[in-house]
Each structure stands twice: as C-alpha cells, then as structure tokens.
Write a structure and sequence with these properties.
Chains A, B: GO terms for molecular function: (S)-2-hydroxy-acid oxidase activity; FAD binding. The structure is a homodimer of 477-residue chains. With 477 residues, chain A is of the alpha+beta class. Helix content of chain A is 36%, strand content 20%.
C-alpha cells in the first residue's frame, strides 16, 4: 500500500473539503455501530467528476475508499477497518428531478430521506422504503444497505423502489445502470446488485427512484397479548390471510417496560403488543383490512384492541414503538443500548419462536434484550442493553449473538432484514451464505480487483466482531 | 473446443433423456423468435445433480450449454448460436412446497406458469408476473427473462416476486441465493442479478417465489379514442394521478383492424382503445379506481366507455387484446407476424409518441406494424407483419427496427420491457448500455470464465440480427 498524497486530495477537492484533523477523523471513525477505526482523511465531493478523480487516484495508489451517507449504519458499514479515505457524500444532496407524469425522481446520494419526502409531499406522493432513521439517513446509504422500515410490508424495500442509477466504479469509470421505466428486461440489471452491496462494488452518484401516492386514509390499531406466542400466531395468521397491512409491528414486554420506565407512557405491561395499520384511498377498503386484522387478533386472544383514523390517536398508539429506540438508550444509566444481531428476518410462522428465543438467550447470558420489529416483513429487531465497560458483558453478548443467529438460520431466516452486514454480522452472514461466499468474492474481485472500495466488510470481515476493530466504548481492562 | 462425448451424456442422463436426431435437433434450434441454429444434442435433466454433472463436463470440455424452458422466448435467447447442448428443463417441473403461513412457494424451473397458478388457486392465491405465454412459459424461463405481463403495472415483474433460488454455476457448483423472507439485506443479493440474465450466468434449479391473494373484485373498462395522442395522454394522466390500475392496455388501429379481419369481432375501428382494470377485496375501492380512470379517459376525449365486473363482459372487453397475437398471425396468408423490436419500454409521457413513431416508421419502410401493450408499465409491444420470403422485407425490417430503437433511446426508454434481449435486440441493447457493456462482460467473465453458458447472447451477440443465425423462414434468393 502506498501512502496517501494529501496534495492530490487538495487538487481534487480543494482545501475546504478535506479533513485530516484527528478530532474530525475520530468522528468519522464510527457510525451507529459498536465499532471504531480511524480513517486517514475525510473528503466531501460536490460532484461526480470529483468522485471519479478520487477513485482513479485511490485505485492507482491502492488506498481504501469508504463511501458514507448519514453515518446511521448499525453494523460498521462505514467504519474504515483498513484505514483510507472516507468519502462523505452529504454535499451531493440535490434533488435533480421530480417527474410526475413519468412517476420517478432523480436524486443525488446525499439527499436525506425526510428531505425527499418533504419535496414529494406537495405532489401527494411519498417515497416508501423510509427507515426509522429517515431524519439523517441518506438515499445513498439506504441503497447501500437495501434499507426499509415500518411500511416495507406493503411497499417493499429500497431495492424495490430503485429504477436505475449512475455509479462510479472502483477504477473511476462512470456507468449508467437500470432504466427510467417501471419494467425492464434489458440484460443484467446491475442496479439491483448495487443495492445492498454496502459500498463495496461502486459509488452511487445518482439514483432514479419510484414514488407512490400518499393514501387518503390511514387507520392504526393496537392489540395486547398475554403470551408472546399468541401475538406471533396472530402475525402469521394475518399474513397468511391475504390481508394487506401497511404496517405490522410487534413490541415485547421488555420494550414496553423500557418505554414506560423512561417515558412514563403508562402502557399496559403485557407480554406483547401488535400495532397494525392499513391505508388506502377508500375508507371502506381500509376498514376491511383493519377489521380483518382486528378479528385475527381477537381470535388469538388479543385484548384491549383499539383502532383509529385520527392522526393524534394514531400517534398515541404508535408512541410506544416510536420512542422505543431512545427509551432503550435511557433505560439504565449504567447500560448502553447496542445494535448487535439487531434485524434478523425469519419466516412469519417463526416470529413468536424468534422472540421467545431472544428472551431465553438474554436470560441465559445475563444481558437484557428486547424483541420488536416489522413483523409483517418478517423482520425482528433487537437491542442488547449491557454495561459496555465490563469485558465479560462483551463476551456474553458475543455468546448470545452466536446462539441467536444459529436459531435464525435453523428456521430458514436470514442474518439481516434491513440494516446490512458490515462488520457486526459478518460471522453469521458467512455461515448463512457459506455455499455462495466464493461467488460473492468472485464478483467483488471482478469489479474491484485492487480491493480498495470499503475493504474488509461482508465476506471479507473478521469473524470476531468484538475484536475486529476498536470499540466505540471504553472497556475496563 | 473439444468434441462432444455422447457416452458422457448417456452416463449422466440415460439414453431416454438425450436427443440427437436431426429432426429433434431442428425443433430445439428455434424458439418463438426469427432465429434458427442447430444444437449438437438436447438433454432432459430430472434433478439438480444431473445439471451439476453436465456443467462440470461441459465446462471441462468447453461445450456450450443452453438452458431452455418452454421455448416461448421471442428474441432467440435459447437458439444455440454456437452449437452445443440444449438443456431442456421441462422435466424438472415439481412444485416442491406451497407454504401458506410463510407466503412463499418453492418450485423447480420447469413448472409451467399456468400450472403454478392452478395449484395456488384453491388457496385463494396467485402468482402475478404471468406473461401472455403462461400456458407454455416455465418459471425458469420467466426468471431468465424477467418476464411480466398485463398485471405488472400493479404487481411487478418476475424479479419482484423472486425471494431466492438455487443455481448451478457454469463450473457445476450449486449455490443458494436470496432468502425465504420478504425483506433481506444480507449482502449481495445475487438472485436479483440472475433474474434477467438469460441463462448466461447460471442455471436456476429451484426458485422461492412470493404469491398474493386473488382479489375478490375485478372491474374492467374500455375507452375508444379518435387520436392516438389522446389515448397516450390518458395513459400518462392515469399514471400521474396516483391511480392503481391492475391492468392498463393500449391497442392501436392496426391491431383493431387485424382482430376484426380475422376474428370478426366487429370492434369499432378507432385510432386506439384503452383497456383498464382495477382489482381489490372491497368493491368501493375498485369503483374508486375505475371511476378515476374513466374520468381521465373522458377528459382526454375517450368515447364509448363501458366498464363491467361481470366475468363474461370482462372477457368480451378483453377479447380484442387477447386475440391480437393469433389475429396478427392470420392477418394475411402471405405475411408472417414476427417478434422484432417487440417490447420496448418508454416513460409514460412518451407512450403516444412511441406508438406514432411505430406507425411512421412502418409506413416509411413498407411493412405493417402494430402498437399495443402494457402501457401502465411503460411497455409497448409491436409486431412486424412481413413477407418473410422477400429479402428486401428483411432489409426493411432491419431499417425500421433501427429507427424505432433510436427513438426509444432518445426518449429515455429501454430496449426490452419484458421479453429480454437474446439475439434480435442485441444491437440496440449494446448502444443503450454502451457505458456499462464492459462491466456486464466483466461479470460474465467472472462467473463463466470459459464462456460456455448460453454464449453469444446479450453483449456477446452479433450486431446484425438478420445474419446472426439462420432464419426460421425460407427466404428467396
């Protein structure tokens, strides 16, 4: 590996768009994961040409380049495990076109998800893949991780919304992938491969995205369950019934207690709650879906069932779920809420077993774990609350996660539903995809022969995520 | 290239599953395209192991292998342009699992589309990507071409329905791609790359597919237009309005005349008709969509508008569209209906211009061309009616197609919406994808270094489709 030539970076980006201060580098050495590693420099491109110039230079000089969006990745996707240059894409944040007659928009990768939705709203449209981090997550980052969120059950994930893109390849070449039309059968549709590739195959510099009409009606409901298994069975029945929820969320007892404790919401502390929503242009159709889900919840011993079209009431119903993330952070001053094994997907029929397994494993390993998530998409979220100063808690977390992923794979689930693999989940990913790992590496090698684009991630990541990088926490020795 | 060792094939497949008779080889030398080339042998695997064994042998012996489903491909995807072994997948036609609670099914690639839908029907479910050729098209072939049909406007194409698959690679390795869950963010999601790769990257031996509930209500409508541009404007307005048609078809005057002539349907010979459909579980919601589309058609001077929920009446409305394909074949005994430039996609706002361009180009080049298609997905179909015995008609067709694709690209369209590229459309494909052709070839080279899997297609196809292979027609000298 050659050394980095700062003058070359200044030439491309100008002094003002380069950071090499240790404090800046420190900040860009972590994302929302547990990992930390120092980059050599952070650069902020303003246009595609600069991205191409950087890649041409880095490819020649064998310097790792790590593209980065909002930094909200949960498993170390943008942590520069092998050093190199972090490519901060947030300046490339123009919405280039909103084409209503042809129902697509073109955006730069640094556009924040909420900003895109703000721009679409006056046209009665929205971009549905939106993850919970939409206030900071960028479209580029969402593409890199095939992000999705509460509405993926009805509207799909990022990959479903991407019609095409412009991508800078590791050698600096600019290619146009995909199309501007809803259907395409023109050969290898490589834009779909780029989605979920976590910045290891190319740098998205423009994306063409689909959008959909904002529904006239949204109705939300909640049902409480005394047994996790009943809530899980209700999820399975709802999905098998042909119902079309626009949201179907599960929240377990640990999560409810956390929200009550830190937010004083006064939620009934049951084993699990299901939050369900239907949407549409016609009230009768929304009623139909909501009633169907309500009846199924009842049949599975759901109680305290309420539903509402009223925005305020809907916000109240969703409050427990919405505040969960901050609530878990404030649960106990001595505990940190870490994103580890945080978004597995399992078949609907195993959702309750999955939640039960999480509780069992947490208890056994002396850590606190929640189970919640977008059950309608098969996605189960967890957080591990632990005292990050204690080395043995990391050992427990490692053990717990290994057991959890073993279960995920045993029920035909997949390691990540919507947060990606990065560093934290590489061990399970490598076992899950064992028979295709060589193929993945072949693709990586073909597109990035010098291995400079976000190296050391996915199939290249170390098996032990605890020691893969430094940790973003002080751990007692 | 080594010569093919028939004893090796007998060893793998048994005598009864090998064809080397010239008459058999002749039949497997063409599909629904204009092309013809002779394979060296046709083999019928019964299981994955045989496919692996064949590939291991062929990869070593450098013999081309061409996987083939129903043979309904329209642009020569399965025509063995470089000879070799045709792998007839029709015996691998088991539906392995219909998992209702987890909402997926697993099928072998030789399952015929209609058969899958017959099996799903008792459960109230259907597989929506279904192309018009569903009576013979196999799931494997549909995956190879990212097939779709009249309902893609609402339900998407094959790629949207494929959750995962098992694939035999050119070297004989078996890999599992994708997942069993609705969302997945576990690294490169290569099953999406396999969809649309036309049998050049791997052989799908099992697919995991999503399905959806059969709607309780379907309502269909038709509107006539005196000007093609008005019909086109109506399509654009419908799609921009946020309406959710489950079908939106355009049929032009040439198509209407053809159907009247050969089927005696007595359709009003207007410039264009739009056929529109909405579906759903609640009648009020279907009414809402239908009325919205009706109003838009009226606003754009649509006339004779009728709509119906009645299955018989719906069949009547759709009859003209349904019978179009056979009608064009019987239009004139001296003319053949050829699939050339037959499924371009253009942005909605250019749909009318596209149809107009087709008419203009046909007239100029002395051939008959129709314009019809799934306008709601941006897909325009055409057929060229020509006297295939006359060499100058082929020259005219070549000229016409070149002009048409130039237009498609000029309006940000794409060469193929749902039939694939194969041989017939390679010239336009190569121009359209010029900046990514090297990348496509890099991927091909990485996965199939010996170039034995369906070689000579897509970016490898000759530029001149007329001379690329023999033609499936006798042409006068």
């Amino acid at each position: 590996m050659k050394t980095m030539d700062e003058s070359k970076l200044r030439e491309i980006f100008g002094e003002e768009n380069i950071k090499t201060d240790p404090s800046d580098l420190y900040a860009f050495g972590s994302d929302a994961s547990v990992h930390h590693a120092m980059p050599w420099a952070v650069v902020r491109p303003d246009n595609t040409r600069q991205v191409q110039q950087l890649m041409a230079y880095a490819n020649e000089a064998l310097i790792p380049v790590i593209p980065r969006g909002g930094g909200s990745g949960m498993c170390g996707q943008t942590v520069p495990i092998r050093g190199g240059i972090v490519l901060d894409m947030k300046h490339m944040n123009r919405i280039l076109e909103i084409n209503l007659p042809d129902v697509y928009c073109r955006v730069e990768p640094g556009v924040v998800d909420d900003d895109l939705n703000l721009a679409l709203k006056p046209h009665g449209m929205f971009y549905p893949p939106t993850p919970a981090s939409s206030r900071i997550a960028t479209i580029g980052g969402e593409i890199a991780n095939n992000a999705s969120g509460v509405r993926s059950v009805k509207y799909g994930a990022t990959r479903d919304a991407v019609l095409g893109m412009k991508v800078v390849l590791p050698n600096g070449d600019l290619v146009t992938l995909g199309a501007h039309t809803r259907v395409e059968a023109s050969g290898y549709q490589l834009h779909k491969l780029m989605v979920g590739s976590e910045g290891t195959l190319g740098i998205v510099v423009e994306a063409t995205l689909n959008f959909v009409p904002i529904p006239e009606y949204r109705c939300m409901g909640i049902a409480n369950f005394d047994h996790l298994a009943h809530a899980g069975a209700a999820v399975g029945s709802i999905m098998a019934s042909g119902a079309i929820p626009s949201m179907l969320e599960l929240v377990d007892s640990v999560a409810i207690k956390a929200v009550n404790k830190t937010m004083n919401l006064g939620l009934k502390e049951v084993a699990a709650s299901l939050i369900f929503e239907a949407d549409g242009m016609v009230r009768e159709a929304v009623d139909y879906e909501i009633n169907k889900m309500k009846e199924i919840c009842k049949k599975h011993q759901g109680s305290d069932i309420t539903t509402s079209y009223d925005p305020k009431e809907r916000a109240r119903i969703f409050m427990g779920r919405k505040k969960l993330f901050p609530a878990l952070s404030k649960y106990d001053d001595s505990l940190s809420s870490t994103s580890l094994a945080d978004d597995m997907a399992v078949p609907y029929s195993r959702m309750a077993d999955m939640a039960g397994k999480i509780h069992e494993v947490a208890k056994k390993n002396n850590i606190i774990m929640t189970a919640y998530g977008h059950c309608g998409s098969g996605c189960m979220h967890t957080k591990i609350l632990m005292d990050t100063k204690q080395p043995e808690q990391w050992a427990s977390a490692r053990k717990a996660i290994t057991e959890i992923y073993e279960f995920v794979r045993s029920v035909n689930g997949t390691t990540s539903a919507e947060h990606g693999i990065g560093l934290s989940k590489a061990a399970s990913f490598k076992v899950e995809k064992a028979d295709s790992l060589r193929l993945l590496q072949t693709i990586k090698q073909a597109l990035d022969p010098n291995n400079i684009l976000n190296p050391g991630k996915l199939m290249q990541a170390p098996d032990d995520w605890v020691t893969a990088t430094g940790l973003r926490y002080a751990v007692n020795n």
